[in-house]
Amino acid sequence: MLNQALVQDVIDEALKTGGDFAEVFVEDTFKDQLMLLGGRIDTSLSGREFGVGIRVYNGFHSAYTYTTDFSREGLLKTAHHAAQAIHGESQIQPQKFQVEQASIIHPIAQLPQSVEKTRKASVMKNAADIASQYHNSISQVKVSLLDEEQNVLIANSDGKFVEDQRIHSRMAIAAIASNEHDMETGFYGPGAVRGFEFFEDLDLNHYASEAARIAVTNLGADPCPSGKFPVIIDNEFGGVIFHEACGHGLEATSVAKGKSAFANKVGERVAPDIVTYIDDGTIPNEWGSINVDDEGNKPQKNVLIENGILKGYLVDQLNSRIMKTKPTGSGRRESYRFAPTSRMTNTYIAPGESTPEEIIENTEYGIYARYMGGGSVNPATGDYNFAVNEAYIVKNGKIDKPVRGATLIGNGPKTLQTVDMVGNNLGHGAGMCGSLSGSIPVNVGQPTLRVSEITVGGRKEDA
């Protein structure tokens, strides 16, 4: 992407004012985005993005600059700007590059750029047809398709020089059910680190029908009651509540500054012994998986909480200096426009011993959150609120009527402490996570589990 001699000159320029570490991140990305609405392709966007980010450290301080000018003059000028923000006494000599190609642990069969858009459109139309035909109340279906090929080069003054290719493919299906009085939406958005084969292998009948079923179910649902109840959260994307309410609090981005409810608690009990919480970027072809992180470090399976005991954090290179620990392969960024920081990959609660049926049978009265929606959290306190896309009342150990408008309100560390049953049906769900280093693909996951009590906000019917 850039030759070694030029990259070395850029690193030398970045270190001229006394920095003790410099890094170059080069990105060349191809992306296709298609949207089908009303049975026809409504939008088709294709693009290529090329840029270079340059970062320099002095102790705990860092500076970051980026450019789309990849001429020698442009790159040296950008490195010079980064250096001007750093003033130190270091006179380090950059190490000789150890050139490597990232190990491909997520095999790709068909590169997205090699596939004609007509083939992509055909898969989208099939999904739309399935959802549209699910029920006569389905009034609109929107299907989006994204595929991305990101090629990167990461080099630094410690001698790292690694190139990597990342492929992401995702389909999002949104179905609207409506009647004379109301309108409800159902959504499903599977994704993977795979090429076009992902769309060919996708079980469209399942995903498209589920999106439509959620919409139809909510259309006929009663308002959710408000109060404090036991809540059963289903597997797959149900894990988003712990991603937001706990995962972000375990990132060094907040831990190193002492702005996390989990800071300085390694070795302490933070959950019941049935809870083990893991971040693993090595799971083959999962949406949040990586070959190397955006600092050139290999991903690993990071056990954050083991049998209820806090074991560690997700740590990037800069925060590893502050925390005096090793990076965990967790430095990630959206693109060259962002400096990396500690981020999640595939984060999940490990499976337990209960079956989903046992969890439901042991619940006298509560809420069953089958599909979670979006939400927000304050990492410093762990306070959160989340919408539930599909919910049911549980009565006498059985799933009863569907309810709509449910919101879960609570505190992440406290919710973690009140998990009292964990199922054996681990599943993962694809999503996008936003933070200081931009929006990145992540997986959230868990088996079906029960929290003994969460505040549930409901919604009243219109008068």
Automatic annotation (TrEMBL):
Residues 22-84 form the Metalloprotease TldD/E N-terminal domain. It comes from Alkalibacillus silvisoli. It comes from the Bacteria. It holds the Pfam family PmbA_TldD_3rd. The keyword Protease applies. Residues 112-219 form the Metalloprotease TldD/E central domain. Residues 226-458 form the Metalloprotease TldD/E C-terminal domain. Belongs to the peptidase U62 family. The lineage of its organism: Bacteria, Bacillati, Bacillota, Bacilli, Bacillales. This is TldD/PmbA family protein. Keywords: Hydrolase, Metalloprotease, Protease.
